[in-house]
Amino acid sequence: MWGSSMAKASGPLEITIVRDIVKxxxxxxxxxxxxxxxxxxxxxxxxxxxxxxxxxxxxxxxRPGGKASLLQLRxxxxxxxxxxxxxxxxxxxxxxKLALADGLFLSAEDWPVPPPE
Length: 117
Prior knowledge:
Elements: H1 14-27, E1 31-35, E2 48-52, E3 55-61, H2 70-81, E4 85-89, H3 92-101
Parallel strand pairs: 3-4
Antiparallel strand pairs: 1-2, 2-3
């Protein structure tokens, strides 16, 4: 599991990053993703749940420099322990790095990069 630990957030808004990640997953073949919506019953859940060619992703999204809460880190760790590719990310590139670190792809060239719209 990978995570951000810097104190001050900057750059694009979190929702902008979430939308980009979901859009890019949905542009891939054999893939689906959605943003989770927070409620009293889903506190700490990752922002994005996705599946690519049978592999589950649980992604807590933060702005660059943002920090996940202890509850969010615990939830991401539970997904990771259950076999999902899970972590705290600030960009699509970090999602790709998580997948590569998990051994999902042979090389960076094997991970398709759909262009943003």
